[in-house]
Amino acid sequence: MKRIRPPSRQTLAALEFLAQSPDQWRYGLEIAKATGLKSGSLYPLLKRCDERNLVESQWLEPSEQGRPPRHAYRITPQGQTELKLGRSRAAAQSAPHPLKEKPA
Amino acid sequence: MSGLNRVTRTLLRLADWIAGPLQSEWTAAMAAETDAAGAQGIGWAIGCVGAAFTMRVRADWLRILLLALLPVGASLTEHILFFPAALAHRADWIGVWAIVALPVIPTLAMIFFAGWSSARGSFPFVLALYLLFMLEAFPLFVFFVLTGSDVPISAFFQPDATHWLLPAYFGIALSLSVYLATLTAGFAFGRRRRT
């Protein structure tokens, strides 16, 4: 059975950006600019998200003539669910632990 | 891709080669985005080489590990079996050609398997170079490190020196050719099985 890890902080950042406008297709450069990710981390992350059906991708025709078509990405409903889960996990981790609190 | 300069194109070709044919959609996506990146294209393309490496290792790690270890295994097998074979020959238990056959046959089997495992896309030149290095140059390096020998390397090529019972130059050329031919045969056989 393949182990499915929860999405990393970088994956959540990319999903967060895509979730801001879930119907809009976004390019790799836009995601990189918004999240601060470099291409070396962005593409393996997008590929993993695509394989896990968290994002969908398609080739879009360029706006300028003579330019190649560009790969664009959009968050899926499953990606939005995963993002909500990720947010609640992050909130739970940042909340103070009752047993670790120092007595007043 | 008219906006790309020569360095960027070379980096993208390298990324495409590293990623392999199964990731071609992703390398095409990276190339298109590099084109759109304009002045920052080189930085983006360098990252694409790293991304291609990560994607390839994630998708193919078991085969990459196997292909990295097989030449090491072949070299170890050849040299570990050579010494018992030579001792057995000295005790007159086996004939002179058995000294060659005993270590070389399992080694060739491993090389054939390496060729068979790499039979995707084009001929594996990097694997071939790595294999020849591990079988011919690496043992010399180990010999010098382990023994701390000050024998000059030219001693291995003197007129009375032998390699696999043959004159040194001829023996080395023959063994390199046999290794390369075995790798090629394994590659061709694997390719035919997969198509």
What does this structure look like?
The complex is a heterodimer of chains A (104) and B (195). Chain A is 48% helix and 13% strand. Chain A has 104 residues and is α+β, with helices and mostly antiparallel strands. Chain A starts with 8 loop residues before the first helix and ends in a 10-residue tail after the last helix. Chain B has six helices and two strands, in the order αααααββα. Chain B has a two-stranded antiparallel sheet. In chain B, helix 3 packs across helix 5. The longest helix of chain B is centred in the middle third of the chain and has 50 residues.
Strand content of chain A: 5-15%
SSE series of chain B: HHHHHEEH
Major sheet characteristics of chain A: 3 strands, antiparallel
Oligomerization status of the protein chains:
heterodimer
Quickly give the structural class of chain A: alpha+beta
Using DSSP, what is the number of strands of chain A? 3
Radius of gyration of chain B: 22 Å
Biggest sheet strand order of chain B reads: 1-2
* Gross morphology of chain A: elongated
Topology at a glance:
The complex is a heterodimer of chains A (104) and B (195).
Chain A: H1 9-19, E1 26-27, H2 28-35, H3 39-51, E2 55-60, E3 70-75, H4 77-94
Antiparallel strand pairs in A: 1-3, 2-3
Helix pairs in contact in A: 1-2, 1-4
Chain B: H1 6-19, H2 24-37, H3 41-90, H4 96-117, H5 125-147, E1 162-163, E2 166-167, H6 168-194
Antiparallel strand pairs in B: 1-2
